[in-house]
Amino acid sequence: xxxxxxxxxxxxxxxxxxxxILKGIDLTVRPGExxxxxxxxxxxxxxxxxxxxxxxxxxVTGGSVDFHGVNLxxxxxxxxxxxGLFLSFQYPVEIPGVSMVNFMRAALNAKRKxxxxxxxxxxxxxxxxRQKREIVELDNKLASRSVNEGFSGGEKKRNEIFQMAMLxxxxxxxxxxxxxxxxxALRIVAGGVNKLKTERNATIVITHYQRLLDYIRxxxxxxxxxxxxxxxxxxELALELEEKGYDWIKEEADKRx
Length: 257
What we know:
About 40% of the residues lie in helices and about 25% in strands. By secondary structure, it is an alpha/beta fold. It has a 6-stranded mixed sheet with strand order 6-9-10-3-11-12, with helices on both faces. It has a 4-stranded antiparallel sheet with strand order 2-1-4-5, with helices on one face. Strand 4 (about 60-65) and strand 5 form a beta hairpin. Helix 6 packs parallel to helix 7. The longest helix is centred in the middle third of the chain and has 15 residues, at about 100-115. The radius of gyration is 18 Å and the shape is globular. The two termini are about 30 Å apart.
């Protein structure tokens, strides 16, 4: 596989409880790119993110996923994370009794162990936390509490991007990160994503709405419908969807099927 391809999904089929959801996904992502995946409810957007992350509730029934030269489908969820895949959940869970400091230090050291590196020292870790907190304007009091416990929706999403900053993934998948955010929280979360973008990493943004893409500008927009990517274009495609809705996409896709 060419070195300039970070993720190559080929003919991916997946099901849950015997029902096929993904029906042949093809997607290529290169370093430095931002891809937006849009589509109506039930089209398979979140299923795609869960399958890539390794959620065992989903069964891959066909196809392949190459992640910077590694067969992603052969890896456990934790090793996918260590290899540089990050999933920001639509509904981040609370983990009572586990402090953010201990949680993030354990995650960071697990990744370092995977690559044969020594654990990060307490001093260096706290310094790193301070630096990364500033990216998403995460209050020190929040960073010291249990993971997401008592956080507002916006604080939970901000915390997800903070975790992303700490782990420095190669590929970040943001599953409806804009869900439930007011305009200020959306600006902060999107600003954090933009600050973390480099020529070496990439982002897949899964969203229903154009408004997030006003802040995180995609290079490519893909429309997912009935388990397949049926249309791909540039940022203007999201604007067209905002104006026309999904009916014209459904009509086009149904004609071809």
